[in-house]
Amino acid sequence: MIELIGVAGVFATFVGICFGIAAYFNGKHIKAGIIEIGMMLEKEERLTRKMIEELFERWDARTEERHREMEARTEERHREMDVRSEERHREILRLFGHILKEK
């Protein structure tokens, strides 16, 4: 019976050592995996940041282009309004001239 307990003790020690070694390597792999995941996340973050910066640059360029177009249209409309105002002014003067001549 004592021999059986002795054999069981040696076997349990061997199994414990195997569990310890397995846990060590498992922890090592987990640590390596976490480091790799961290590096992948950093890479994804850099790529995402770059994509967002490029998107904002395109938006800024479009906004600037549209702003220039709006300024050009506004200036053209102001010129048209000036021409129309001058025409109306002349028409009003002509009408008042007729009215004043009649009196």
What would you say this structure looks like, in words?
The chain is built from 1 helix and no strands. The chain is mainly α and 103 residues long. The longest helix has 101 residues. It is rod-shaped and about 145 Å long. It starts with a helix and ends with a helix.
Summarize this, please?
With 103 residues, this protein is mainly α.
N- and C-termini, Cα separation? 145 Å
Largest sheet: none
Helix-strand sequence: H
- Strand elements, count: 0
Give the amount of beta strand, in percent: under 5%
Which of globular, elongated, flat, extended, rod-shaped describes the shape?
A: rod-shaped
What's the oligomerization state?
A: single chain
Radius of gyration: 44 Å
| Class based on secondary structure composition and strand pairing | mainly alpha
Rounded mean pLDDT is: 88
Tally of individual helices: 1
Helix content: over 70%
Low-confidence stretches: none
List strands and helices in order, with pairings.
Layout: H1 2-102
Q: Which keywords apply here?
A:
mainly alpha, rod-shaped, 103 residues, single chain
